[in-house]
Amino acid sequence: NKENHNDKKIKLMIDAVISRSLEFGSNLTNDEISNLKIYISSYQSTHKNFIYSLQKKYKNPPSELWLFSPQPMQSFIASWVRTFGGNVISHEHGSGEGWSKNALDSLFDFEYSDEFFCYTNSNKKNYKKIQIKNNILIGSRCKIKTLKNPQFSSLNKSKINKKIKKICIVGGSYRYDSILYSIQPHGLILMKIHLNLIEILEKNNFEVFVRPHPENLLPNIFHKKNIDSSGSIDNVFLNYDSVFFDTIQTTAFYTLLRKNISINILDLGTNELNSLSREMLAKRCSIINVKKNNSGNFELNENDIINSIDKSILLSDNEFMNEHMNY
User: Fold this and answer.
1) Using one digit for the tens of pLDDT, what is the confidence trace for 86-145?
2) N or C terminus: which one in the chain shows less Cβ crowding within 10 Å?
3) Are 116 and 144 in contact, with CB atoms under 8 Å apart?
4) What's the rounded Cα separation, in Å, for the pair 51 and 55?
5) Could you tell me whether strands 87-91 and 115-118 are parallel, antiparallel, or unpaired per DSSP bridges?
6) Full-model pTM
7) Would you say 147 and 175 are in contact if contact means Cβ atoms under 8 Å apart?
8) Is the separation of the CB atoms in 50 and 83 below 8 Å?
9) How far apart are CA 103 and CA 296, in angstroms?
């Protein structure tokens, strides 16, 4: 019976979501499970219609498809290709997640890919470990491979020892959708962090600018004078003495880690590093642990921020980059 078979598939999907939520220490309520069933049924119908439309228009899907990242639209196209026997290949983007304790984004990559390429052997080992530990069957058959011929065998920096006057906040994406288990804070919360950081830095006589994420449409809460206009990310190294990141999961971090510039990281705990990677990163970047207050907002400590800037000048060991992003 086709209907019973479909119900079983939906049940398997719901069981997978429940299992994943338990890994995050969250128990779904009966109401949430009921709503989940409605959502998955609707999403499944959209998925099938999309595949049918693609097949009707293009007839023959490609035999091989390379994906940058399986966001919803890409995942639909990937499903179309795989449904008709094609091969889907994806790869690490930005700074990858070979350093991550959970590698949440990459787990989504695995689910829609037959092969996944990563920067280094260390990343490959970490992904395989996470893939085995993850008790969701979707994605377990994805073959994880390593890119060959890295551009650098080793990179080491001399101590920066530069007086910090001008600082750039390299912002993450301001997301306005509240996705359960998202590795990014809500856009409004992230804006508040950046505004708070600007206030602290200006109070301490630093010249400070925000470099918005390319996806962002900046609201009027930022003064025009505080918006970076460097153009290419490489120009940030030329125009500033130091940078702040609210996430290391970004191409900008991958780029600036290679430059002789001091780096400060606001660790919001949204994508936790494994312990060994964190130790290595702390030798190159100054890491500030940011906690939430009782109202649920992240609270920056002025002394922590200023001490971080002073400390960042002395950090130059690139073991983390050589281990996870050496390509």
Assistant:
1) 999 998 877 888 888 877 777 778 888 899 998 888 889 888 888 877 655 567 788 999
2) N
3) yes
4) 6
5) parallel
6) 0.79
7) no
8) no
9) 24
